[in-house]
Amino acid sequence: MDAKVSEFDNVGDILVLPLFQGTDKAPNNALNGLSRTQRSLVNEALSSKSFSGKNGKQLSVWTAGCQVVLVGMGEEPSDKECRDGGAKTLAALSKDHGTNITVRFTTGWSTEKMSLFAEGMILRDYDFDKYLQKKEDDDQGNWNLNCQASARHQGPLSVAVAKSVAVTKGVHMARELGNEPANIMYPEEYARRATEWADGKPNVEVEVWDYSRLQKEGMHGVIAVGKGSERKPCMVFFRLNPNAEMNKQVPCIVGKGITFDTGGISIKPSAGMEDMKFDMHGSATVFGLFVALYESGYKGRVNGITCMAENMPSAGAYRPGDIINTYSGKTIEVLNTDAEGRNVLSDGLWKAGELNPSFIVDLATLTGACVVALGHEASGLWSNDEKLSARIHAAGNAEDEIAWPMPLLPAFEKEMTGSKIADVQNLGKGRWGGACTAAGFLKQFVQERNGKQIPWAHLDIAGTAWGASTNAMVAHGATGIHVRTLHRLITE
Ligand code: BES
Ligand code: MN
Ligand code: ZN
Fold this sequence. Notes:
CATH architecture of the largest domain: 3-Layer(aba) Sandwich
Strand order of the largest sheet: 7-8-10-9-13-19-14-15
Largest sheet: 8 strands, mixed
CATH topology of the largest domain: Aminopeptidase
Oligomer: single chain
Bound molecules: ligand BES, manganese (II) ion, zinc ion
Shape: elongated
């Protein structure tokens, strides 16, 4: 979507008027550029019972040459209601009326709230329709957004809208990667897209460790999970501004990238298995984050690591009972091949520790247990560092991507380190607290620095990466969750 900010000048094909409750007459400037007939139609609609201004209510008024959409915002909309309002408004528009949208923010709007409404529209403008055979006349082109506000808002609103456009490129990239089916999106295809994206960008580096490099390096957590598939595993390293801030510690973000999770030899039931194409959303978020940081012109240095593998059952697959010698030197007893995310992350997290990062954040669609605990409304957040946890929680709240603190108790770690024959085991004793024992497992692979673990946080996005019907920013499929949270965390 193209978006710009201007005075109350021309109207496009569609005029969106977000209005507060109790507006029964068009505010100043709201109807600039419309004819007398058009104005009176809109004013009649506003004073009628058909439009109350209640939050969530909309009324479309057809006038010759311009569809006017009255959007109720309620009395004092929250930040979330503003962002959701923009998203829901865009979702309801049809391109049959043309693709030039004018949104007019009049009486009562702060710059901050305008920005959120516009951001909702921008974020919602994504469809995964590339595999639909469309008729030619369906191709009506892209939306064009013109946000209109009075002079004093224009500077800050332009900055905010440009930032939303930049960050949304990353969000949409993450959704696209997540939505691709597993026959298209396999580890080396992810690596190819990352390499292609980095190509020609002087401040971006993408390095791929292919199957033979993984073997040379001893990345046996990733290898074990991926070796049962025809599509071999790999790791992808992202570096933004690799030559900046060389004597400063910078963040490292790690993503689980299981391009399809059948469960392996501990195979999953068929019902719903198709959703396991989303099991690489952690890695999709990492990629999307780098796109967002790049597009928004971030000047600092950032590292990313994604652990890419397809978890398949085959003659070459790893089995229950296997012992993996991970990159860290610690061994894992495999009790269930479906607990594969933690196996690949063991290598990614240990590698992250080698980069001497300021902090590590990992993202993973790690456990069904996390969905049981938090539904689709929040990601689980575990951390060994209260400050980092609080910062991620706050960034998530600001972006309405809730990351809910969960306990990292010593008892959970103990469950995962109780194997008689290996350093850690990849399954807890029972099924209770499955998201917490998984976090306790991951913690074993966070390196120490000066006798203390590097600050680390784990986001279990199993419930938020897709399937959240209450997420107004997305129609269906992958959500691009936490690209915005992490962009805020890193750039703020
Ligand atoms: N990718 C799944 C977790 C998952 C399940 C995410 C459903 C989203 C929806 C993960 O690899 C997995 O299979 N976890 C197991 C762990 C268990 C074997 C300890 C699970 O949650 O059942
Ligand atoms: Mn699994
Ligand atoms: Zn998985």
